[in-house]
Amino acid sequence: xxxxxxxxxxxxxxxxxxxxxxxxxxxxxxxxxxxxxxxxxxxxxxxxxxxxxxxxxxxxxxx
Length: 63
Description:
This protein is mostly helical. It has helices spanning 7-27, 36-52.
């Protein structure tokens, strides 16, 4: 009737995100990889376009 719970899978799903987010949790800063600045600019561009209600595929704010 009930399926057996896979505790190993649940443990991995809970621990892996904590390990990935540990620099943010312990230091308060995120690690930026090779393309970190690119992704930061994407988020900033989307936020500015939403703020100004100017939706475009062009990078008008971060170019």
